[in-house]
Design goal:
Radius of gyration of chain A: 20 Å
Strand order of the largest sheet of chain A: 4-3-5-6-7
CATH architecture of the largest domain in chain A: 3-Layer(aba) Sandwich
Strand content of chain A: 5-15%
Structural class of chain A: alpha/beta
Largest sheet of chain A: 5 strands, mixed
Number of domains of chain A: 2
Helix content of chain A: 40-55%
Number of helices of chain A: 8
Oligomer: homodimer
Shape of chain A: elongated
CATH class of the largest domain in chain A: Alpha Beta
Largest interface: A-B, 51 and 51 residues
């Protein structure tokens, strides 16, 4: 097999869920029928990998120092929603009419993996809560064990700064990933979120 | 969402079997954990799309005018194996001890889709058979209706030039794709190939 083709098949395996056979199929498909699409993908990858960084406010992916959502004057800065991943933020944005701001953890507390508050940017979140503008912190971590532990930590952090912690209504399937919940359920859960007490 | 990210997600959908949700997942995965892998993929794609052409002898993908297999002195030029796709050729090469040469159709006869002998390079194959070096033509098209029709045409072409047509032994699952047959079955089928008579 051509060395370039072998390199392409090998490089495609960096994609999640793509093994040797799928990578082969993708490479042949591109060479056979989608050379222009393959070139466009090459350019899009290079641009995205090199130029997408993180928003200095919400930590979501952004190609500008502050992302459009954080920079928008029409969003409600008094409500801040914390999510585990950019995909969660996107799912909420697409499914609900939430107009507040976001904070992206890029993970969840997981001491055994060495992921503590610092790795999730929670020092920065604390500083932000201390500024006094945020009134409510919606904790939208996943309903998994680690997500719940993270939610507990975030609720305490909020209370320390006099901010009301809340979370989306139960109804999210336990053990599942927020990213994959159907829009109706997610929207309902956002609408009937409840305060965290105790 | 970042425009560059949207472009990346869109560009990823050129890959076979990748829809909006998978593309999103892939893009986030690369940004989050595999930036170097993403850059390598970008380079591999660009190199492959621009520099991989077709071998002038066997029509398989090649980055040189004649591919290494066709250029090799250690292959038996008296036996020529015709396959539908480069993936089929690769499967045979990996599963069997076949040491002859290949001819890749890049498709199969399909008059309704406007795919005739010319589109499959069969004029070039005819010229090659007329040269007299080839003694046996192994017709390894897929056991589908169109593949069988193509095999029939190829057998006639071989006989016209005094070349013995053969095909791999039955045992290949009907209606399936040669590319996905397990190695043992494929190897057995190659070992007990039979002449095409009548």
């Amino acid at each position: 097999m051509s060395a370039l083709l072998e390199q392409l098949i090998d490089a495609l395996r960096v994609l999640p869920g793509v093994g040797q056979k799928s990578a082969q199929r993708m490479a042949y498909h591109l060479l056979e029928r989608q050379r222009d699409g393959g070139r466009r993908l090459s350019e899009a990858l290079e641009a995205a990998m090199s130029r997408i960084g993180n928003c200095g406010r919400c930590r979501d992916f952004s190609e500008t120092p502050v992302c459009p959502v954080c920079a928008s004057a029409s969003r409600d800065a008094q409500v801040l929603c914390v999510v585990e991943t950019p995909a969660d933020r996107l799912a909420i944005e697409q499914a609900t009419d939430f107009r507040g701001l976001y904070f992206v953890l890029h993970g969840r507390l997981s001491p055994l993996d060495g992921i503590g508050p610092r790795e999730l940017g929670l020092d920065g979140l604390g500083t932000r809560l201390a500024e006094g503008e945020v009134r409510e912190l919606i904790v939208a971590t996943n309903p998994t064990v680690e997500g719940e532990a993270t939610a507990h930590y975030l609720a305490q952090l909020a209370r320390q700064h006099g901010v009301r912690p809340s979370r989306p209504a139960h109804g999210l399937p336990l053990g599942g990933e927020l990213e994959y919940v159907d829009r109706g359920t997610l929207s309902h859960a956002f609408g009937s979120r409840s305060d965290i007490t105790g």
